[in-house]
Amino acid sequence: MAEAMAWIVHLDGRLCVAMGEHEMVHFIEHPVCKDIPHTPTHCHQILWWEGECLPVLDLAAWLTGQPVERTHAAVGIVRWQERSEAAPQYGALLCTGIPQKLQVKDEQLCDLPVEPAGWRVVAVSCFRHNALSVPIVDVPYIFSDALVKQRR
Amino acid sequence: MAQTFPATKAGQERPYALLSIGGYALLLPQSEIRTLASIQDISLVGQRASGVVGWLPFAGRRWPVYCLDEALHPLPHLPPRQGLCALVKLNASYFGLVCAHVAIVPGSEVRIWPVPAAMAMPDSPLQGLSRHADSVALVSTAAALAALLGVSEATEPTRKA
Fold first, then answer.
1. How far is residue B44 CA from its own chain's centroid?
2. Residues whose CB falls within 8 Å of the CB of residue A102, separated by 6 or more in sequence, listed in order
3. Beta bridge partners of A7
4. Do B118 and A147 touch (CB under 8 A)?
5. Residue of chain B minimizing CA distance to A149
6. pTM for this model (two decimals)
7. What is the spatial distance between Cα B8 and Cα B27, in angstroms, rounded to a whole number?
């Protein structure tokens, strides 16, 4: 039976996602993000981190199609590679609360939630945790230009 | 650490003009700024749907002047504390941008990041992003701003009396 470590990230008070253990590299509470004009509403800010310019993605806003209010905004700094030999790339995923690390087993596999419908676009799989369906998000995909092209 | 979205160093031969406008900064190639004028040199007009706040005389003609807000939308009026007009060169014509300060930045000191893929919108006037103090400078060009504002060679302003 296969097992893997994963992070659970709460996007807002209702939606959460999971990602691989090595895809989350840092966590920042109360990030200082800068608004950038002529950008999509779900990704309209950048964050300077380690001398780099990171896009700040509000996946909950994209999934629900509306702005999300967070009383305790935070970002998870995520990392991905387009190809195994490519340089890593980084982005900031807006969330609330502290991500939770846990072990996931094959037997926890379940169907994606029906709503929001966007889960079928951004998630590669899903598992059950404490009576909650937790979609596993495709990190390189959500930080590509795909969500702009599939504007909700 | 590897770079996320690799930034580029501007060439040393290509300085930039940093326009401070309200609470943000706009970075344009210095070669695209023809001259600077005082705001008092502008013939102000009433609120226009075109976004033109006034006309600046230069080289025997008058050129439209715009004032942009933080979203790079044209304002219908001049905000306070904007004392300068940078005349931007667009091929054979010009247009003005109202600003508070203009600084020349050597290309060697400018690091430009491409707009991240997740943020890039078609028809955006942004050509990149740069760090300015603790904030961000929006990198653009005369052509990109002209497209945004609807300024074109074909619609050069006629001489005003």
1. 19
2. A5, A6, A8, A129
3. A19, A101
4. yes
5. B121
6. 0.90
7. 14
pLDDT value of residue A1: 62
Per-residue confidence at A71, pLDDT binned at 50, 70, 90? confident
Q: Indicate the helix (H) or strand (E) that contains A139.
A: helix A139-142
For residue range B120-154, list pLDDT tens digits in order. 999 999 999 999 888 899 999 999 999 999 986 54
Per the CB < 8 A criterion, the answer to whether B94 and B58 are in contact is yes
Q: pLDDT band for B161, please (50, 70, 90 cuts).
A: very low
Collect all residues of chain A within an 8 Å Cβ-Cβ radius of residue B131.
48, 53
Rounded to whole angstroms, the Cα distance separating A93 from A60 reads 10
3-state DSSP call for residue A22?
helix
Residues 106-125, chain B: which have Cβ within 8 Å of A? Answer: 113, 115-121, 124-125
